[in-house]
Amino acid sequence: MSDRLAQIARQLNYPRGLLAGQVAIITGAGQGIGAECARLFANEGARVVVSDIDGPKAEEVAARIRASGGEALAVAGDLLRDEAIADLVKKAAEFGGGKIHILVNNAGFTWDAVIHKMTDKQWQTMLHLHVTAPFKLVQALAPYFRVKDGEPRNVVNISSTSGLHGNAGQANYAAAKAAVVGLTKTIAKEWGPAFGVRANTVAFGRIETRLTADKEAGGFIEVDGQKVALGIPAKQKKAGAAAGAEQFADIPLRRAGTATEAASAVLAIASPLSSYISGQTISVTGGRNI
């Protein structure tokens, strides 16, 4: 899809790329969908700020972009901490010569439990990471977005089908991702009329990332010294097959999406190809839930 977008960009007289001259902050960009967003945005001419809690991974992504001729800055920090948000905005503004055009709120992970066993820590962490941190980052970017300089500004918040339809074992994640939709629509209504800021949500279905890999693979993230296992138990994935159902039977395309396909959707909605789209939730699901 990214090659097709590049072809369209040339046809529409964007020879330097769809995002040429724009500065983009992408959170959670040290790996997975965020890293692919960073790569694709840089390929379209954006100056990319690679934000991630894992500094070495963020720098690795930024280094690859620079090696390919793009411009990128890695900024490490835990977005659950206010000082990290302030530092990210400060460094992004310096990198962008005082301007920031795009924010992709992508950082996140899952911390599952059924409702009657979910701890306050699990609940609060998911709400803080998926709603409060994006809100605070948008708030901190107000001086750079609420401007009238004729240049485009837009926010892309990442949600999930869990936020649109709910999901057993994910009351915390589903509630947070549902709240993101309301936050997005409010940004569009508040900052669109006077400043032309666009805000949209991209809700992912089953995408091949560490969050959907086999939990037995050992992926984890650390929260205040506690290791949180990531992924889906293999036996849960096999349960459908054991019952005679195809693994992706509820997806019309009969497969999971790739990180590149997910990132391409984010690029499309952030680009001028979507210049009259705002306040919307774009489902990237392979047709699931239609």
Automatic annotation (TrEMBL):
UniProt-listed PROSITE patterns: ADH_SHORT (PS00061)
SUPFAM superfamilies recorded: NAD(P)-binding Rossmann-fold domains
Name of the molecule in the record: 3-oxoacyl-[acyl-carrier-protein] reductase
EC category: oxidoreductase
One Pfam family matching this protein: adh_short_C2
Catalytic activity: a (3R)-hydroxyacyl-[ACP] + NADP(+) = a 3-oxoacyl-[ACP] + NADPH + H(+)
Start and end residues of each Ketoreductase domain: 22-194
EC number: 1.1.1.100
Alphabetized SMART domains for the sequence: PKS_KR
Keyword terms of this UniProt record: NADP, Oxidoreductase
Record bears the keyword NADP: yes
Family: Belongs to the short-chain dehydrogenases/reductases (SDR) family.
UniProt keyword NADP present: yes
